[in-house]
Task: inverse folding
């Protein structure tokens, strides 16, 4: 790789680290304790341009590649922060970018890049479908030049902290389809001016993720807000999965490094039985082991990102990166908890907060079982479970 590219990436890393220094542990503790949205942090990230990393320059974004976006999210989590507050903008952008019309891109992207519009909500999951996305039931029925949407979505994060929602809804009844991956469509819902009822209710969950249940009652969406062709929405969502997995892996790598740094430091300073606890192999070796696993995941993430940027197939690597990084981060979290003993449970030390936050990455936005199913079935050619 050219040294100028490496230098530019290192400079982004350092700039994001610098930005994150203004949001220390106490900030994230307060946000978590009171279940607040980290608005000041998201504002700073928007002003710096980093939240618009993946928006092309012609639309006012930074026009960076997936590696740079990965570095940004990794460093936020590495600093002790939680990029879950705002990562959706990077995750979901691709659908609009790849499949949106020139008019849609012109209408939305510059405002999103400038921070005037927030695209933070992505509505796919439903109670009766779960991981089987092709079973979603929320219906969008065409009526003249608009669609009328009725149904329910669950676990929709940041719906109250967003102006726009990217919605996956059914436009053809399941039973009428030969190919069950068809019949779903993607829409941009402008939540500021929906006609009909959009009822958004918070879900009480173990992480501060602003996750909600959303009910649609005769919600009107103009036809011009449909992204791409009717019925091809599932394909459009799948197209974004590799980038999503690379970015989730990056958050997990950031978490993993944070836990290992905290654990190593604490283990070196905490004296029990007259010596640092880190001198004991029962404490030291698990930290070293977790470090090795985080670094291995790091390499897989870099490989996935570089293949993606070269336009090569990277489904296997992106999925392996997500799997390895989320498991390594979770291992590091557990090891860090053990290293801190009772203090790991004290809110002031931040370990328990990051422990909760990093566990989420094993299960969402996609569970590691689904990742293993992809590897087993699509990469290794074994029989399908679904
Ligand atoms: C904090 C949080 C935020 C979220 N934010 C969003 C969001 O913004 N937008 C959105 O659309 N969704 C969001 N989700 C939803 C998340 O993507 C889903 O929880 C996830 O896709 C799984 O769906 P489910 O919970 O219904 O699990 P289920 O589908 O019920 O599965 C339960 C378990 O069974 C496993 N399983 C199911 N079938 C198989 C199989 N064939 N083989 C092996 N294992 C299997 C699953 O992997 C999982 O471990 C969020 C979830 C959480 C917890």
Result:
């Amino acid at each position: 790789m050219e040294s100028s590219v490496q230098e530019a990436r290192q400079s982004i890393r350092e700039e994001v680290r610098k930005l994150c220094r203004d949001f220390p542990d106490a900030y994230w503790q307060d946000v978590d304790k009171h279940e607040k949205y980290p608005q000041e942090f998201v504002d700073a990230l928007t002003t710096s341009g980093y939240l618009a990393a993946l928006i092309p320059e012609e639309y006012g974004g930074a026009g960076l590649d997936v590696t740079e976006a990965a570095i940004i999210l990794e460093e936020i989590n590495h600093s002790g922060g939680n990029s879950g507050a705002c990562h959706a903008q990077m995750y979901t952008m691709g659908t609009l970018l790849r499949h949106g019309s020139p008019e849609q891109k012109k209408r939305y992207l510059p405002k999103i890049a400038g921070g005037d519009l927030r695209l933070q909500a992505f509505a796919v999951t439903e109670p009766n479908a779960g991981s089987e996305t092709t079973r979603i039931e929320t219906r969008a029925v065409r009526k003249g030049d608009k669609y009328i949407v009725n149904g329910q979505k669950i676990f929709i994060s940041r719906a109250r902290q967003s102006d726009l929602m990217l919605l996956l809804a059914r436009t053809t009844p399941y039973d009428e389809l030969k190919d069950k991956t068809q019949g779903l469509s993607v829409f941009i819902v402008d939540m500021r001016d929906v006609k009909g009822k959009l009822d958004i209710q918070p879900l009480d969950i173990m992480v501060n993720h602003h996750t909600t249940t959303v009910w649609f009652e005769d919600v009107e969406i103009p036809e011009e807000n449909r992204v791409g062709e009717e019925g091809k929405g599932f394909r459009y969502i799948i197209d974004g999965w590799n980038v999503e997995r690379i970015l989730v892996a990056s958050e997990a790598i950031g978490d993993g490094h944070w836990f290992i740094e905290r654990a190593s430091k604490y283990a070196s300073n905490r004296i029990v039985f007259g010596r640092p606890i880190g001198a004991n192999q029962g404490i030291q070796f698990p930290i070293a082991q977790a470090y090795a696993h985080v670094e291995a995941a790091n390499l897989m993430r870099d490989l996935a990102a570089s293949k993606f940027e070269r336009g090569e197939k990277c489904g296997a690597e992106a999925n392996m990166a997500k799997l390895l990084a989320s498991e390594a981060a979770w291992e590091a979290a557990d090891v860090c908890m053990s290293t801190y003993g009772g203090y790991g449970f004290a809110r002031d030390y931040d370990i328990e907060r990051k422990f909760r936050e990093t566990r989420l990455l094993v299960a969402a936005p996609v569970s590691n079982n689904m990742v293993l199913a992809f590897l087993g079935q699509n990469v290794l050619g074994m029989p399908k479970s679904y």
